[in-house]
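Q: How would the structure tokens look for this protein?
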Amino acid sequence: MRLLRSSSLRFFALVFAVQLVLAGSLLLFVRYVIADELERSSQALAEALRDDFVADWREEGTAGLRKLIPSRLASLGAHDAAVLFDDPDGNHLAGNIADWPPPVAFRSGWQVYTLYRMGRATPERIGIVTTSLPDGSHLLVGHVIERDLHIRRLTGEALVAALSLTIPLALLGAVVATRVVTSRVERIAETARAVAQGELSRRVPVEDETGDAFAELAGAINLMLGRIEALVSELRMVTDSLAHDLRSPLTRLRATVERAMRETGDEAALGALERVSAEAETLLAMLTTALEISRAEAGIGRDRLIDTDLGRMIEDLVEMYGPLAEERGFSLQAEGSARAPVHRELLGQAIANLVDNAMKYGRPGGAIGLTVTAEEGAVAIRVEDDGPGIPADRREEALRRFGRLDPARSVSGAGLGLSLAAAVARLHGGTITLGDRAPGLAVTLRLPA
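A: Here is the predicted structure in token form.
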């Protein structure tokens, strides 16, 4: 069903139908022109012969015309002409048709009938014209159109054969046109996907400078991408500079607080300083994580992907976080094995953030599962807990930077854990998915293998 709704298939069907309709229309027009010309020619011959007989009657009279008709038929040949000359009483005077056909009027224009000619065993299709002479006699002059009908039949058979040949040619033309358009659209889509993954320097290739629609579209998109790259670069410079500038005073603040803690003996002051130190540490962690997200979204670190045993990586994380999890009443479990090219440090921190979130929001005494699964062309890293989870309509909000949902405001944190995991997934060209474990949350990082 998806293929039937695709734009490529609709474009293919449109091109095929247009070619078929044009070819069919042209062939039908040619057949009509040939048939019309044959009929016009036969009618013109019959009318010209009638006019000659009428002129002969005026000059020679009835007796003269009666003598002229046999000689004229002999000169015309026995294959085409049909003539009947009757007196006013309907008696046959001359010609190669024995009797006046009952349905034929004595004065009529071009008509086609099936008639017998004298000396012929079978009827023939004959186009005739009739006239009444001033003395009351009647003249019927016709032209045999059997050969014309045969040519029409041959033309129809040729039309069917031509249409049969047109169908594969139209299919071929539709395939070629669709491939050309699809390939150019795919190049634009490939550039858009690369930009979405952080390669802001990518541009749509312009194959020619002819100024066609695709060249204009590529130029407009490239201008837009250039502007986006400039704006993002400026924003990144500002945020990075701000983060770096803030880290120094925060570091000095923490050092000052730690020195004050060593020097004070007041328990109340010591408790306040400890809270200030914790907040300073949280701010430093937030700035560090924000910088890492910015770098990941900018594609920094993509050249440091190395083939890694992900099963061994999650086992190391379980070993590292196991004591802390047990202290908080959780059990950590690792399962599965797969290999993929990854940025070990960033991926490790992303998974650690997911484990930390599971310990913050999971049900105490529950289990936190880390699994690695090999899929077709990808690996899936899944972190599960049995906490309250995240409603489906709030998951996009949870993936944004500093995106903390209302129930989580009472829990310490900056709302950057899922954002970092999403940025790391995009850095690897992968995706992140938030699912429902019923109960609990299942976060899946799916990375190319």
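DSSP finds eight helices and twelve strands in the chain.

The domain at 7-150 is CATH 3.30.450 (Beta-Lactamase).

Upvote if useful.
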